[in-house]
Structures are given as C-alpha cells and as structure tokens.
Amino acid sequence: MGTIRRVVPGGGLRLFVEADFALEKTRIGDSIAVSGACLTVVSIQASTFSADVSPETCKRTTLGGLRPGARVNLERALTLSSRLDGHLVTGHIDGTGRVASIEKQENALVFGFECGPELLRYLVEKGSVAIDGISFTVNSVTESGFGLTIIPHTAKLTTLGIRKKGDVVNIETDIIGKYVERFVSQRGPAEEKSSKRGLDMDFLARNGFV
Fold first, then answer.
1. Would you tell me how many other CB atoms lie within 10 Å of the CB of residue 100?
2. Side-by-side strand order, sheet with 2-10
3. What CATH number does residue 120 fall under?
4. How far apart are CA 203 and CA 195, in angstroms?
5. Which of 35, 43, 59, 119 is positioned for an S-S bond with 72, CB 3.0–4.6 A?
C-alpha cells in the first residue's frame, strides 16, 4: 500500500504518494497502479512519487476524492517474465461501485458490492473482476451487485482490509468480456457500408455456437 501525502489540483490532479516499498527500481515514465488506476510516474524523491491524474480519470474513479493521509493500493507494471497470478488487469477503470455489505465467514471476509448495469453486464459468476486494482473471483451476481470473498492475506496487505460499508471502490471488469461483446454485437464503419455481414449473434446461432 501507500499513503497520499499531497494533492495538487489544476485541471486534473497531481498526486504525491509515499510507497510502503522501496522505489529504487522505479523510473520516471514507469506505470504504477494507484488503487487500480494506471498512472505514469513523473517525479521520484526517496520513497515518494508523483503522478498526474486526468479529468477523465477523476470522473471515472475514486482518485478525484483522495485527500492527504488516505491509504491506497500500489502495484508496479507486470513484466513479460512475471507469473500471472490472477487475471489480466490493465489499470483502466470502468467505473465505481459501493461496499454494500461485509460479513465475517470463518477466516475470510465476504464482501457485497453495488454497481450500475453498465458494469454488471460484464460480470459472471466465477469470472474475474478487479476491485481497487486487486484481482478477484466473482462469487455471485445479482440484479444490483455482486459478491466476492477476501482471504486474510489480502485484507492485511490492501485497503480492502480497512473498507467499511458505504465506501466507494474502483471497478475494472474483465477486458476479455468487453472485447467479445464488441466483436459479436457491433459492426465497424467499413462493415456498415458493405453488404457482407460481420460476426454477430445471428451468425453464431446459425452455426451452432450459441
């Protein structure tokens, strides 16, 4: 995790973040996910780095509401030689949700989240979702939200261990689902002008895929 030390407004924001880990291998221009949102490092001083936050990111994420002292999740970019212990998380936040419930279940915490239909459409039971940058398996999906389970290790090392009912979190849905939807449900400008049909749900049904 890390701690927000300074917030400088100006169009968007510039955040100054003190990391809980050493930054000696971090360079200006590197990407660091701050509570799930991919930001570019623009300065480094000892254990603190700064990054600019665009107006779009302020609108889409919780970063626009951060204040000095707030705790955030930090993760450096994946390298091509790293193990992928989770699912592909890009750091491009789709929107936010709200903690609806937190229940203790033996050694774990069961979280319930509320979010809009524009996010729920990409969530499936036993699929993947990123909450504040953390990869999770979706336990259940309802008409208004979804649930997942957090183990003690995750609660200890991330901000979800200090979340309370009503807190707002960043949500990134599975990128594979978004691309699949785009490919099967929409046609590009070139296809619209052509008499040939693209790949759509009718094509898949006619050929026995659905």
1. 17
2. 71-72, 2-10, 12-19, 48-53, 37-45, 31-34, 74-76
3. 2.40.30.20
4. 15
5. 35
Residue 68 in any domain: the answer is yes
H-only helix segments in 95-200: 117-120, 152-157, 175-185, 189-192
Cβ atoms 181, 123 nearer than 8 A: no
Q: Residue 187's pLDDT band (boundaries 50, 70, 90)? A: low
pTM across the whole model: 0.84
Q: Look up tokens 């600019």; give the residue.
A: 52
Structural domain including 132 reads 95-179
Q: In this structure, what DSSP letter does residue 147 have?
A: E
Give one DSSP letter per residue of 67-121, joined into a string.
-TT-EE-EEEPPPTTS---S----S---EEEEEEEEEEETTEEEEEEE--HHHHT
- pLDDT for 22-77, tens place per residue? 998 899 999 999 999 999 999 999 999 999 999 999 999 999 999 999 999 999 98
Beta bridge partners of 71: 3
What is the length of the chain? 210
SS3 at position 125 = coil
